[in-house]
Amino acid sequence: RVKEATHNDFRFFTTEMQAHSARTLQLANALRHALSRNELYLLYQPQISMDGHVIGVEALLRWQHPQLGLISPAEFIPVAEDSGQIIQIGEWVMRTAAKQLKAWMDSGLPPMMVAVNLSAAQFRQSNLVELVTSILDETQLPPKLLEIELTEAVAMDDPQAAIAVMDKLHENNIKMSIDDFGTGYSSLNYLKRFKVYKLKIDQSFIRDIPQDAEDKAIVTAIINMASSLGMHTIAEGVETADQLAFLRLQGCSEVQGYYFSKPIPPEQITQFVRNSNRSLAQ
Ligand code: C2E
Ligand code: MG
Ligand code: MG
Ligand code: MG
């Protein structure tokens, strides 16, 4: 009886695995044409300072496939990582985001930052810093307006490499922030050696504020530690006025989340920035 159950579990498992790899293969194949067929695009999510200014936007990648529909980055980024396509896609993301910010500023929007997410494979690229600086040259975007987000998990997977990359980016006036902070087992010994501009507090710690006392304690500790180390903090996934009030009280520098705006197309960012500046002026 035990044996039979094991046997069935095993068959179920392999069927699941086959379905999974069929989808993965389908996505990997379709992804090869995604850039040339203009199926990829960027949305931008505003990042807001505690006095209500839009201080920057995070570029978030989307893939609209004609048959498969809208595919989440959580699903296709790992596929692009495994197939190596993330290198080309990541370069496109950075160039597109840099061009977009330059265009916003040329059209009269006040200077702000643009943040792009860096994948593990891009982080390991030996010519990463050269690539970033050449994109900045080409787009004429001032380096200090570009922010590169690396997840805590990727940074801590190879901290020596992370230190080297951060040092080089810092020499070139490019900012680096640690994404999903709190989920990746940071060694504080390394964290103090990282040239990090900002810690992005993972949204899993924000979700249950103000009910969850432990999450509140963790968030407070992160904000205080970052501030002592001279780093900014931004809370991800802010959805309510109560969460905002708590974060403001604790001295969190910036916030990002549906409470202010979902990720939106570039045309809507223009409107969002103008509206928020107008409401501040009143
Ligand atoms: P992330 O960089 O941590 O981005 C934050 C995610 O939280 C985004 O999901 C965003 O839409 C979502 N979010 C923002 N505010 C809220 C909120 O108030 N509530 C909730 N529930 N969610 C919120 P998205 O756009 O689906 O991206 C998921 C992940 O995919 C990103 O997490 C990032 O790791 C990855 N990703 C997205 N674009 C890129 C890219 O261009 N390159 C790379 N390498 N990864 C990317
Ligand atoms: Mg991010
Ligand atoms: Mg995050
Ligand atoms: Mg994430």
Automatic annotation (TrEMBL):
<protein>
    <submittedName>
        <fullName>Putative signaling protein</fullName>
    </submittedName>
</protein>
<feature type="domain" description="EAL">
    <location>
        <begin position="24"/>
        <end position="277"/>
    </location>
</feature>
